[in-house]
Amino acid sequence: MEAAGAAAAAAAAAAAGGGCGSGPPPLLLSEGEQQCYSELFARCAGAAGGGPGSGPPEAARVAPGTATAAAGPVADLFRASQLPAETLHQITELCGAKRVGYFGPTQFYIALKLIAAAQSGLPVRIESIKCELPLPRFMMSKNDGEIRFGNPAELHGAKVQIPYLTTEKNSFKRMDDEDKQQETQSPTMSPLASPPSSPPHYQRVPLSHGYSKLRSSAEQMHPAPYEARQPLVQPEGSSSGGPGTKPLRHQASLIRSFSVERELQDNSSYPDEPWRITEEQREYYVNQFRSLQPDPSSFISGSVAKNFFTKSKLSIPELSYIWELSDADCDGALTLPEFCAAFHLIVARKNGYPLPEGLPPTLQPEYLQAAFPKPKWDCQLFDSYSESLPANQQPRDLNRMEKTSVKDMADLPVPTQDVTSDDKQALKSTINEALPKDVSEDPATPKDSNSLKARPRSRSYSSTSIEEAMKRGEDPPTPPPRPQKTHSRASSLDLNKVFQPSVPATKSGLLPPPPALPPRPCPSQSEQVSEAELLPQLSRAPSQAAESSPAKKDVLYSQPPSKPIRRKFRPENQAAENQEPSTAASGPASAATMKPHPTVQKQSSKQKKAIQTAIRKNKEANAVLARLNSELQQQLKEVHQERIALENQLEQLRPVTVL
Amino acid sequence: MGRGLGGRVTSGGSRDAVPGAGPPKMAVCIAVIAKENYPLYIRSTPTENELKFHYMVHTSLDVVDEKISAMGKALVDQRELYLGLLYPTEDYKVYGYVTNSKVKFVMVVDSSNTALRDNEIRSMFRKLHNSYTDVMCNPFYNPGDRIQSRAFDNMVTSMMIQVC
């Protein structure tokens, strides 16, 4: 419905805009004709979104698009021209609709012109339309708008036009008959303007059409001569007034809601549009409330609410004022309706609405509680929502707009409440699902209720305070593991053993070769042995550093399991580290058996500690190694220089001998 | 307090307030002073020289402190909040009121408002106190900030003499 209305409005506007430009190139349309045709086209196009209509076979198929006229209304319109069927056939062929398969503006205008020509008695030819013609007359079915009323269920949006179409003086009597005929055919039809015998009348008729009213281009509405006819029209229109006015009101309210979006203050009959909370908003607010306070019947304390609303990034004075407005009983806490009101005000403010001087009536707590009974953990909640849904459908677009902004806001509290984030997102998804499904409240509601039912327990457990969340996060860290598993302290003895000889080694300049490979954490019992082996290796003269390194590497390679680990002195940290678990695992496998169930967590944390110490030691080792490296590099340079000197000497000596 | 049958304000004699209007507008200046003796809120009728009122309020603080300390610590609980007339001047009378948190309300009224009765002043202070409490209930209000609440403003406006 709304889509149809929107499409209608858009199409009408577009068509009007397009129509007012110029007619199709081959056609020369007078101004009156242009306006008339554009109106007609708009109407036909507007009903394209509506039902298909029972188009007679001669009507061309209509391509679904806003720039085309629906087959049904077009066909009806043509029939209304009271031309014989074959004439209409010819017309549709000539205008090209059959060729292209749809009634675009061009085709439509040509067709209308041809109809006029035919009605004037001219042969149906393209040439006929080149001359000046009166406007086509559409007798039987009044104006196009009425045709659509033949399918009231489908052409919802078009019903708006019903009460406003006027009749033609001359054809008034005819109209009566026709109206009655029409009424017998379809009781919901309203009598519409009829056959214009003079162009200006006809011209005004479509302008008084409901669509123009919808477009709020009401300048030419109800021209004076027609007002007299209005009361006459109304008796016939009364039958359709019922079903017609309601959708009219609906359409009008929808349009008004659109205008409300554009204008800040709409002084129409719905001054509270921006302050009216819709279903989706209400649900969202309630969910947010629950996220702050699990019990929906209690209230949110001031500090909690302050933190929450501060995330909206409004200024403090504004937030303070919003609080003033919404906290009706001034108790420093927000009940659910107060919270919703405050939230709504914040949302409105973020969307640019100025804050009201006083709490709008639709945001009063009593009103909110009456309109939306306090949420309960059952489906009744949503049943009540669906009941109040029709009443609150109007500012849907506005609220969708707000909804997006609200969602943006929602993202703010989500990160800080990680515990309930899943719940929130799931709820939001349900809200998202509920949004597009206007009609499918029911499937959404059980889902919501189910999800909400599933939620409460988690919510009651999941606290809203961040500290508890943090505490919960801290629970997983296990108590430190018992020492025997990783032997962090015990293995540190090995480390010390390893280090102490290495330290003097480094100090004496017996530097270990620069590590070529990263240590591989291969725990094995032979590590200790290999460490001992490595020590003497490392104690070799640094002058052999270059040669020793490959040798060591070879040596190291020859002892694959832990050699790469060995190569670094400092990485022995890690080696020792790996040793620790290795020794822990393998060495005292007996110890492991002795205590078959040191908790895994203890092991892991113990390992973590060990790893951390190892990391520290590694870093230290790295630093030392870096220094060693630089020293080695210098030594290498010196050695190179010596070598060069020696070679020079050799060169000098050699020629003597070579001779 | 005010409304007679005819809607005329009958309590008190001549007053500048419009007959049948709301609560009597009597004060010329109303100030809220924090515990540390700096103003949280001060408003006076604009026609007068505001500085004069500020000065009067400031000097009245001494009197307030005097009255408070006169009670002694033992009597803190029994101390009445309403301090009564602090000091009269030729043109004005200054009344004081202090809360339990040592927030002071000072009201300056025109001496020509002779018919102002004590209990009316008390009721005005009570209203001030209630409004101040509402302001404090707002979590966005930090104690010690200037009071910028619209509701409070409205209430104070209702108590000030309406200068046409």
TrEMBL record, chain B:
InterPro entries: Longin-like_dom_sf, Sedlin, TRAPPC2L. It is found in: Cytoplasm, Perinuclear region; Endoplasmic reticulum; Golgi apparatus. Its main location: cytoplasm. One of its GO terms (biological process) is endoplasmic reticulum to Golgi vesicle-mediated transport. It comes from the Eukaryota. The keyword RNA-binding does not apply. GO terms for cellular component: endoplasmic reticulum; Golgi apparatus; perinuclear region of cytoplasm. It holds the Pfam family Sedlin_N. The keyword Zinc does not apply. SUPFAM superfamilies: SNARE-like (SSF64356). Keywords: Cytoplasm, Endoplasmic reticulum, ER-Golgi transport, Golgi apparatus, Transport. Belongs to the TRAPP small subunits family. Sedlin subfamily. PANTHER family: TRAFFICKING PROTEIN PARTICLE COMPLEX SUBUNIT 2 (PTHR12403). This is Trafficking protein particle complex subunit 2-like protein. It comes from Gorilla gorilla gorilla.
